[in-house]
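Issue 218. Parser rejects a valid record. Input:
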Amino acid sequence: MEYITSRQNPKILEAVSLRERKVRKKKGFFFFEGKKLFQEALERQVPLVALFAREDALPEEQELQKLPADCKIYSVSSSVYEKISEEKAPEGLFCVGKTIDKYHKFTTIYNKLPETSGKTTLLFAVSLRDPGNLGTVIRSAVAFGCDGLILSEDCADIYSSKTIRASMGTIFDCPLWVVKDTGSTVNALRKNGFSVYGSALDREAVTLQALPFSPHACFLLGNEGHGLPEELLAACSGKVFIPMTDRAESLNVSIAAAILLYSRFIP
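Output the parser choked on:
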């Protein structure tokens, strides 16, 4: 274990650089903070490469033994931890991990669909830009048994610390694909037996309660401000909306995702 006291130490500067998306993508590393996320990462066997622990927050030896053999452990002073942390009230654990390719991969969806022998539910988020919303959507997807989450490539970064924090660690356990061609993905889903429903406030949309049951369904959710593009809605099997009072124009996208997924989760 190495003890670091300088805020200009190269390892500290490298950790700080991971705040930038382009650096994370280039190096293939991401970071997250906090005791709960650290414990979730250990349980899910996330490939951690470095742990920076404030000197008063070093994990117990039994937890350190669960780290990958090649994971570097650094004990850092409070001043140094302030340099790397984004938290207002940091717990003193800063973890660096490798991109989790077995879960998250830029690919086409064609050969990556889950088996469709039983009821299957997917969620497809298009142009979701807020990392907090994305993380909350991921958390709901895992909570309500979603079989996979598909994202357009212009969504918020799944490796943003805000996304990971909002997911409460469920991102480590969520099958997830990022796709370039949203239209082709919708077509592929339909060809593979999925009913694809676009969420929209539209006269042609049916209420969630009236939506016919389909053993294999995928819900599409659009951008926080603009919703789904018309051409993508036209490619769907149908449109769906969530009834609500006229005192609100819309729901937060993460809330809408939770309601849609819960409708498939309940017996």
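Fixed in the parser; the record now loads. The mean pLDDT is 91.
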